[in-house]
Amino acid sequence: MEIAVLGGGHGCYAAAADLADKGHRVRFWRRDAEAFAPVLDTATIALKDPEGDREATLALATTDVGEAITGADLIVMPLPATAQAGMAPILAEHLEDGQVVYLAPGSFGSYVLAKEVRDRGNRAEIAFADAGTLPYLARKHADGSIAITTRASRLPSGVFPARLGEHAFALLEEAYPAIERRTDALDAALLNHGPMIHPPLILLNAGPIQHFESWDIHNEGTQPFIRSVTDALEAERIALRERLGYCAPHFPLADHCDRDVGEEPMYGLLGHERLVDSGDWREALDLYTHRYLREDIVYGLAFFVSLAQWAGVATPVAAGLLAIAGAGVAEDLYAQGRTMATCGLTNLDVDGLRRLLHEGFAA
Questions:
Q1: What does each C-alpha distance from 269 to 15, 156, 255, 265, 266 come to in angstroms?
Q2: How many CA atoms lie within 13 A of 307 on its CB side?
Q3: Using an 8 Å Cβ cutoff, are 334 and 305 in contact?
Q4: What percent of the chain has pLDDT over 90?
Q5: Which whole-number Å values give the CA distances from 188 to 131, 145, 181, 182, in the listed order?
Q6: CATH pick for 2-189 out of 3.40.50.150, 3.40.50.720, 1.10.443.10, 3.40.50.10860
Q7: Is 266 in contact with 193 (CB distance < 8 Å)?
Q8: pLDDT-derived band at 155, boundaries 50, 70, 90
Q9: How do strand 215-216 and strand 145-151 relate by DSSP bridges?
Q10: Are the C-beta atoms of residues 116 and 137 closer than 8 Å to each other?
Q11: Which CATH number fits domain 194-359: 1.10.3720.10, 1.10.1040.10, 3.90.1150.10, 3.30.390.50?
């Protein structure tokens, strides 16, 4: 399959290397030519995973986004939600009928990008999909190499508009056999672990994060008190999902952190242990700029709180964490955030939202 991978982050390198290693023709685009030079020069990425070390050969490495997108069946964008708005004009210029754009994860970016692309005049029949998580736990070790600690063994995903699901899932499942089909894009967006796991970890570990040169929030940063806060936040997420009519599995984080609890989590039974054992998440975090705040709180948690308010579901833990984060950086993060208002959805009722998610925009 012809696949374009867009972006230069950890997940982008992981997707490009992994999909190429699996035999797909991968066109890999990155904007920063200087940082991209090791890949541009060789059209390869050094891949390290539990199976060993090897080179993944790309069909194309390019800084020309049109060259990457045109003719691709599937476009994979493992970019942070903070980068999605900047991609809208690029996508609007190049997307064609029948293509599938996969945001992994998207923080409901599938709907946002679909609307932005349409508002910019592109009327092609395009499916946008949200994943419940990034398909990989991965870290770049250099600009030409990627270490994949583990791959998602369960990858819940939803499509906007959902009526294009059969076509979209046929392509998505060819690339990612671990995909589990969800009702629609919002269903998948409300399975995103990022806004649930990272806000409690960075806010309740703020002292050691700012004191020590590096800190592993998933290892010594995950203590029983913090886990209790995460469990309460997760209960709010599940209550909202049930209010909106979405069924189990809800993929609670307790399943990810405790091998002997619940169902198999998204990254398998050993996912959390491999993450901690790798040491790749022992890092310096700038609480003012890191994506755990700028993405998972401003785009993820703010959207969750606004959606819950719209749906009439109480979320005191989520709202409290959002307020604490805003106080810590002296900014109104809710006002900056992705919300039902900024998405233009506050005029809908639940049935109206369901119709929009299934049918898409009126002709």
A1: 22, 16, 8, 7, 9
A2: 27
A3: yes
A4: 83
A5: 6, 30, 9, 6
A6: 3.40.50.720
A7: yes
A8: very high
A9: unpaired
A10: no
A11: 1.10.1040.10
Cα–Cα distance for residue pair 329/150, rounded to 1 Å: 33
Q: Residue 269: is its pLDDT beyond 50?
A: no
Q: Does the pLDDT of residue 74 top 80, yes or no? A: yes
Give the dihedral of Cα atoms 99, 100, 101, 104; nearest 10 deg. -160
Q: What is the pTM of this model?
A: 0.91
pLDDT band for 218, please (50, 70, 90 cuts).
Answer: confident
For residue 17, the SS3 value is helix
pLDDT (mean) for 165-179? 97
Reduced to 3 states (helix: H, G, I; strand: E, B; else coil), residue 216 is strand
Mean pLDDT along residues 45-56: 96
User: Residue 352: left (phi > 0), alpha (psi -120 to 50), or beta?
Assistant: alpha
Model confidence band, residue 154 (pLDDT cutoffs 50, 70, 90): very high
Task: Give yes or no for a contact between 51 and 27, defined as CB atoms under 8 angstroms apart.
Answer: no
The 3-class secondary structure across 274-304, one letter per residue, is HHHHHCCCEECCCCCCCHHHHCHHHHHHHHH
> How far is 301 from 195, CA to CA, in rounded Å?
5
Look at residues 257, 239, 260 and name the one whose alpha carbon lies nearest to residue 312: 239
- What number is the average pLDDT over the span 269-289? 68
Amino acid identity of residue 77, one-letter, is M
Sign (positive or negative) of CA dihedral 264, 266, 271, 272:
negative
Question: How many Cβ atoms are within 10 Å of 82's Cβ, its own excluded?
Answer: 14
**Cis peptide upstream of residue 249 (ω within 30 degrees of 0):** yes
- Average pLDDT over the chain reads 92
